[in-house]
Amino acid sequence: MRKLFAIGIAAALALSTGVVVFAESSEKTIGGNESQSINVIAKRTDTTENNVVYSVDMKWDDMTFTYHEKSTRVWNPTDHTYSEKIIGGWDKNTADILVTNHSNADVKVGFVYKTAGNTDLTATLDVTESTLKAGVENDYEHAYNVTSKLTLSGKPNETVSESGCKIGTITITVSPENYEN
């Protein structure tokens, strides 16, 4: 019984290795008292290879900002009240950009804001560069990420109309962490 168990274990071990064994391929006919040696060749390959896969998610808040020149209220005829008073100024002055690394390698993320035109407005990003570590196997929910907040300030001049205009562009650059420009 022990021999059968040992043979089974030996067979399992032999079959689970990454070694390929084969005989030389050639044919030869031999006669009665002749012998033929056949070379048996073993090769080993290392097939454990992880190719780098880059996958980065980007999400951003609405980038439309409305400046209210004067205070306004809207009359509600149903209950004879005014809506909440909107005081002159921005309806909001910030918006977030979220970048999440789902790659199996570290990445460098850069954020650049470039002004378009002369609107008397200033926009800044609180994060301009960050390195995000590679994703952890079987942990999608905790992928490394960075948020850069755009903050808008100033009072727009007459070039900014009620229909809106482009005041700038945000460029997000993602590159391998060890990449040199």
Task: Note down, in words, how this protein is organized.
It is a single chain. The chain is mainly beta and 181 residues long. It folds into 2 domains: 2-44, no CATH class; 56-176, Sandwich (Immunoglobulin-like). The protein has one helix at 2-16; strands at 19-23, 40-44, 56-60, 67-68, 75-76, 81-82, 89-90, 94-101, 107-115, 122-125, 129-132, 145-153, 168-176. The strands form 5 sheets. The chain has a 4-stranded antiparallel sheet, with no helix packed on it. A hairpin with a 4-residue loop joins strand 5 (75-76) and strand 6 (81-82). The longest helix has 15 residues, at 2-16. It is elongated, with a radius of gyration of 34 Å.
How many angstroms separate the termini?
A: 67 Å
Instruction: Give the helix tally.
Output: 1
Mean pLDDT, nearest integer?
82
Strand content: 35-45%
Q: Structural class per helix/strand content?
A: mainly beta
Show unreliable segments.
Answer: 1-17, 19-23
Protein traits:
181 residues, mainly beta, Immunoglobulin-like, four-stranded antiparallel β-sheet, three-stranded antiparallel β-sheet, 13 strands, disordered N terminus
Write the layout of secondary structure elements.
Blueprint: H1 2-16, E1 19-23, E2 40-44, E3 56-60, E4 67-68, E5 75-76, E6 81-82, E7 89-90, E8 94-101, E9 107-115, E10 122-125, E11 129-132, E12 145-153, E13 168-176
Antiparallel strand pairs: 1-2, 3-8, 4-7, 5-6, 8-12, 9-11, 9-13, 10-12
Gist?
The chain has 181 residues and is mainly beta. The protein has one helix spanning 2-16, and strands at 19-23, 40-44, 56-60, 67-68, 75-76, 81-82, 89-90, 94-101, 107-115, 122-125, 129-132, 145-153, 168-176. The relative contact order is 0.18.
